[in-house]
Amino acid sequence: MSESAQRSEQLFTYQDYLTWPINERWELLNGRAYNMTPAPSRRHQEISGQLLTLFNNYLKGKTCRVYAAPFDVRLPQLQESAEQTSTVVQPDLVVVCDKTKLDHLGCKGSPDLVVEITSPSTFQKDLKEKFILYERVGVQEYWIVYPEENTICVFHLTPEGKYSRPEVYTEQDSIMVGIFGDLTIELPEVFA
To answer: Where in this chain does the record put each Putative restriction endonuclease domain (predicted)?
Structure first.
């Protein structure tokens, strides 16, 4: 496995997760614990900061909110109680439009938009496991950012509950944000 090593083969719940040291970053995917250390690169932080600023500026005075990692997104399955939730992720950015999903611990349920910025240690997880997870739980729009290539792939959830073919954007393009009809993200700004 990559640098994002598992805690162990044991399965964990959100109740376990809450007891772990606050200075460590972990995610739970179907009960498997993944260490989110090491810290993101400077390039990762620059891209995340730019996207956060652009979304924040647009969302002023609106119902939706944007949050940056570390921010817990709990995705319980139907039979799981809040404490027994086996999936807790910390996407790089999330946009949540349903305020009833927000509490003092983060978000419980699917955000409307998720942005994951890849790194060598998270690449496979973002592209495979999280893609399947976000599709299954109904995240309307999923962005995967490739910092080394200055590229973003955007997936939109279809009415059938599957992600569409990716829309691929490079550093000279603009992205019309699908969940908002009037927000365009200028990628020269993001990748500057």
So the answer is: 15-180
Domain range for 94 is 41-190
Residue at 27 is within a domain: no
| Torsion (CA) 52, 55, 61, 65 in degrees, nearest 10 | -70
Measured at the alpha carbon of residue 57, what is the angle toward residues 52 and 62, in degrees to the nearest 5? 110
pTM of the model: 0.91
How many domains, in total, are found in the chain?
Answer: 1
- The 3 state secondary structure assigned to 7-35 is CCCCCCCHHHHCCCCCCCCEEEECCEEEE
* Residue the block writes with tokens 């598992």: 6
Share of the chain above pLDDT 70, in %: 95
- Would 157 be classed as within a structural domain? yes
Structure tokens at 135: 């599709």
Whether residue 99 lies inside any domain: the answer is yes
Which residues have CB under 8 Å from 65's CB, separation 6+? 59, 95, 96, 97, 99, 102
